[in-house]
Design a protein that fits this description.
- The chain is α/β, with parallel strands linked by helices.
- The protein has 2 domains: 209 residues, Rossmann fold (3-Layer(aba) Sandwich); 169 residues, Glycogen Phosphorylase B (Rossmann fold, 3-Layer(aba) Sandwich), CATH 3.40.50.2000.
- The protein is built from 16 helices and 14 strands.
- The strands form 2 sheets. The chain has an 8-stranded mixed beta sheet with strand order 3-4-2-1-5-6-7-8, sandwiched between helices. Strands 11-10-9-12-13-14 form a 6-stranded parallel beta sheet, sandwiched between helices.
- β9, α8 and β10 form a beta-alpha-beta unit.
- α8 packs across α14 and α12 crosses α15.
- It is globular and about 60 Å long.
- The two termini are 30 Å apart.
Length: 395
Amino acid sequence: MKVLFAESHNLDRPEPLGSHQYIRQFKRDGHECLWLGPLISPLHIFKPDRLNRRRFKIWRQGVHEVDGIDWLIPMSLFIYYNLPLLRSLYAGRSQYRFCLPPLIKQLERAGFEGADLLWCAGPAALGLLNLVPHRLSCYRLADRLEQFRRIPPNVGVLQEELIERAGFVLATSRSLWDWARRVRKEGVFYLPNAVSENFFEPAVSHPADFPDDGRQVAVYVGTINTRFDLETLACGVRRLKDLHFLIIGPVTFEKLKPGLRSLQAESNFTWLGPKAQVEIPAYLQSSKVGIIPFHVNEDTEAVNPLKYYEYLASGLPVVAPPLRELTTMQGPLYPYGSADEFCGALEEAASRREEDKKDLIEFARGHTWENRYRQIMEIVDARLSGGTGGPAHSI
């Protein structure tokens, strides 16, 4: 089977997302895979950062291989962007029609004149439905994108069009499932995030830069963005001196940087910045508690945190606010609703016995990417054979 992934992230992204996990599952299963995207344009010439330099290099190569998977980055003269004219719905629906060289010719040279499965990971893929011949399409719905900065505010219209037109929809949270079901009644499946097998494997060594002051460690791994509740975290850092707080991940919300820098003056706080995904299990397995200090709002109500499964697979009890995804899952959790409760939940989680780890790990084993992939293939096989597929996961 030929599987074409239309994506908005680099294939070699250091912190892999769901689509990265799934394309590798398809590849291991013997399917022919191509990663298409992200789109670049002449506008990106004026943003000569490392990420865009990398994308232009891939575009010039034509097809680049990463771990046995072909990667093609197209350039379009007319892209969907949050600027006058470019933020129009026409741009959002049509950007693949303005590629140089023409996208269809690029796909033909890569051996993808058509696809059995067109995997749409964002609204940019909407224009591919009429452009690329395919037997079946799916839309993995992972975010309400109109809530993101730098994305045109009308992006929800494109998302709803893609929800309606795709062969089936995979919603990563109940909130997104609810939204998709308001758009269409059939072919919407709830399939949350999961964890990689390497998080279950014992770490080879203790990280050299891991805090080593004798205190138990509460760790956060992930992007530090508008979801991140720095105020509540700071309360924990300043009140719980018997715990060391370790933060791993890049900052994408600049307003949080001064607060993080001020916390670095505290003896029980360390911010290491981003780490490669292969390094993360060693940090988690050396810690005592996993934390998800998020605000509770419309944005986070649609979030199914990857880190929740990664913490549990590493044997860590999880402290997090009562996000809809975490509470309705009824998995292991130490919830909190205020800064005081955050501190109390941390103390309770940190006192958990080592022998209780096996329960956390066992729960995580039911939520691996391999399990999710098998559910997807049941849906794909049923739909390619003329059926409708069963529910990927009950709600």
